[in-house]
Amino acid sequence: MNSLPSRGLAAADPEAPVLDAQHVSPPSRSSYCVSVATVMTTGALVVRVVQELPEAASLVSEHLDDNFGEALLHPLVSDLLLFALEAWKQNQADVVQRCLTMLDGALSTGDDEVENAVAVSFVEDSSWWDVNVQFFIATWPPGLMAGMERQRGWKRGP
Prior knowledge:
With 158 residues, the protein is an all-alpha fold. Helices cover 61% and strands 0% of the residues. The protein is globular.
């Protein structure tokens, strides 16, 4: 697994731990329970992606390298959508479910920026209205489904 540049997490969230290949491990059950109760920042999202979805660690590392160590939420979440769609096409159900569960948590516990990135760059950009992605959409957890339903019900103002 590629190591992540520490400058990316420090720039995104000064409280986030520095990650490298030696320090990335799956979260314990107790740390997961604690993290659900807190607000997810950009740095926390990056950490959770690497911890809960190690298959996407190289995607995160490349993203940080391409952006001079800074995590740009919308492009990163958009990359996670492409990652999840590809895993779904490859019948990697466990990978898809872990990705969706992590993003579902980000939508419900994320700060305004994280919530917006998931709502726009994952839910909206999924083309949920397209019949070709309906089987993928059917695998979504409740929070992502609720986000899609909010968008479905959106009406242009007066």
